[in-house]
Design brief:
0% strand, Serine Threonine Protein Phosphatase 5, Tetratricopeptide repeat, 168 residues
Length: 168
């Protein structure tokens, strides 16, 4: 199980920040990296740099400032990723859900939520979210890699659970 949680955290780490650079896998989603809300931008930069707690705090501060719906959605998606990197799955899930309520077309949020579900061992839900993300961004290499990892982990758990069941 420890390996699975580490893999899920690695997925989220790449999810939260790999697309923070402008021009990477567009398709109706964004990560805050602009001057419209400096705190949200600074939070995304901190997450990208691995300063998770600082990134979370800056993002929370940024969400207290009036922002566009898309900025708030991206901020909550970043919080989802940040809390997932800290393995605070339930808190991460709340922020993913909030983000998707604000913007149901952000494939990165579906990917983040898939990582959260994976961290919780809910592989079927993770696959469902990745497939929803692929409907939005069918060429996303990030989503395809996440799907591969989740399916691999699901098989691994299945094999381990079968091998641990011994006849009486």
């Amino acid at each position: 199980m420890r390996l699975l949680v580490c893999v899920a955290a690695a997925i989220v780490a790449s999810i939260a920040t790999s697309a923070a650079v402008h021009g990477v896998e567009p398709s109706h989603s964004s990560t805050i990296m602009g001057p419209s809300n400096p705190q949200l931008a600074a939070g995304a930069t901190a997450l990208d740099s691995g300063r998770i707690q600082e990134g979370i705090e800056l993002t929370l501060d940024g969400l207290r400032t009036p922002s566009s719906v898309s900025d708030r959605a991206a901020g909550h998606s970043n919080l989802c990723a940040g809390y997932a990197m800290l393995k605070q799955w339930d808190l991460a899930l709340q922020h993913c859900n909030t983000s998707l309520e604000l913007d149901k077309y952000n494939w990165r949020t579906f990917n983040n939520r898939a990582a959260v579900h994976s961290g919780k061992g809910q592989y079927d839900l993770a696959v469902k979210d990745i497939r929803a993300g692929l409907e939005i961004a069918p060429r996303s290499t990030t989503l395809r890699e996440s799907l591969r990892i989740v399916q691999q982990n699901k098989r691994l758990v299945s094999v381990r659970s079968r091998s641990s069941v011994r006849p009486p």
